Task: inverse folding
């Protein structure tokens, strides 16, 4: 009996590690295409697309003015875009402050349909009623700051024929705490080795909840309908099922405020995982069906991404197994040391620690604080394991937990401090 149990454990742990290895090789293989930025052909696009810049805000009186001001300073003809603020169930001065700074404010009060996804759907319907006044909508969060060339870059991508475009998500406060630094590292890595390579490979990039643009014809044809806790992920999967892809605009930068404390981060990521589990239950099967029945690589890639949380859990189990095996060598756990020599594992571990910093350095983000951040980044990654488990166990909880934003800084101060990319000469001529 004991021998049979040992063989069963050996078999199960072998399956777990093979799955982890296969998924890891897949994601690493895709990421290789983002190591080097391609020199795209210069694309001069006359500003002609008309944008509705939509900001979803719930009690954001501390930060709402700064995102509006950053949009007012776009290097894009002012008559070609309007700024809309959804004052969603606000109990503070968000609406009045937004109006004073030149936004068109729409007040929404709905205690039954709470959350950003519902607020956006409500606002999109109002934009539809305006006829053909706009060609596309750009969605932002109230805590964001927007680079001055954002609309120009989106116009350029729309003119190339892309209908849904995600911008580069940077950090507004990378050095406020070890949590904000870890968040920033995660987004910088995602931009370069998740989003960019998928754009180059013709797969679908992922929407990030903010800093994205959608052609109104797409919204009208398939509808928004993304009202779960992770509306961005839901709409990405909905696009994939409809044969549409999310493109990437690497130079359209949006600065997002990251949670400062582990408690705030935990709550936010629990919500992300609850929404991820909800999306997986709805879209994983249909996406795999589309992928194999139609040989659709983009649908396959999206399905694999929905599988990511399961991979996190399996990696957590593998970590526990390795710890147990280090104290109890006779433990009946399969180890890939049976496949690869120990020296190969040492090389893999060393490369794993170097991989992230080298990617970040390639983005011209060298800062000793970032390198120090990589020392604590593994601990941030490990927190994903219990968060993923908790998120899946509480996936039926649809309540929206608002993240309070307090980091007050202007776009000019931020770009001066971070020495970020300046607007292109093409865009700046429309200032």
Result:
């Amino acid at each position: 009996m004991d021998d049979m149990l040992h063989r069963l454990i050996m078999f199960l742990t072998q399956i777990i590690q093979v799955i982890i290895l296969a998924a890891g090789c897949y994601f690493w293989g895709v990421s290789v295409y983002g190591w080097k930025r391609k020199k795209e052909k210069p694309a001069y696009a006359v500003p002609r697309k008309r944008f509705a810049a939509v900001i979803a805000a719930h009690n954001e009186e501390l930060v709402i003015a700064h995102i509006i001001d950053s949009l007012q300073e776009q290097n894009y003809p002012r008559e070609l875009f309007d700024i809309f603020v959804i004052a969603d169930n606000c109990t503070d001065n968000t609406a009045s402050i937004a109006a004073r700074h030149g936004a068109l404010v729409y007040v929404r009060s709905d205690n039954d349909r709470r959350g950003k996804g519902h607020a956006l759907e409500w606002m999109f319907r109002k934009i539809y009623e305006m006829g053909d006044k706009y060609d596309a909508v750009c969605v932002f969060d109230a805590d964001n700051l927007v680079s001055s060339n954002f609309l120009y870059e989106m116009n350029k991508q729309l003119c190339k024929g892309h209908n849904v475009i995600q911008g580069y998500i940077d950090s507004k406060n990378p050095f406020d705490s070890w949590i904000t630094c870890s968040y920033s590292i995660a987004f910088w890595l995602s931009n370069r080795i998740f989003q960019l390579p998928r754009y180059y490979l013709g797969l679908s990039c992922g929407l990030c909840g903010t800093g994205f643009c959608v052609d109104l014809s797409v919204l009208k044809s398939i509808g928004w309908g993304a009202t779960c806790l992770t509306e961005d992920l839901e709409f990405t999967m909905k696009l994939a099922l409809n044969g549409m892809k999310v493109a990437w605009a690497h130079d359209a930068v949006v600065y997002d405020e990251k949670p400062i404390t582990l408690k705030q981060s935990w709550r936010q990521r629990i919500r992300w995982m609850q929404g991820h589990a909800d999306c997986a239950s709805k879209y994983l099967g249909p996406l795999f069906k589309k992928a194999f029945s139609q040989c659709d690589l983009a649908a396959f890639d999206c399905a694999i991404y929905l599988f990511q949380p399961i991979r996190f859990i399996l990696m957590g189990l593998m970590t526990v197994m390795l710890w147990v095996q280090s104290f109890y060598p006779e433990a009946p756990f399969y180890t890939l040391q049976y496949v690869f020599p120990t020296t190969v594992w040492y090389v893999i571990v060393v490369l794993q620690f170097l991989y992230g910093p080298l990617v970040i350095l390639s983005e011209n983000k060298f800062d000793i604080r970032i390198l120090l951040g990589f020392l604590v980044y593994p601990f941030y990654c490990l927190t994903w394991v219990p968060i993923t488990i908790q998120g899946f166990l509480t996936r039926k909880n649809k309540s929206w937990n608002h993240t309070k934003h307090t980091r007050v800084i202007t776009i000019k101060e931020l770009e001066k401090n971070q020495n970020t990319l300046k607007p292109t000469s093409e865009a700046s001529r429309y200032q």
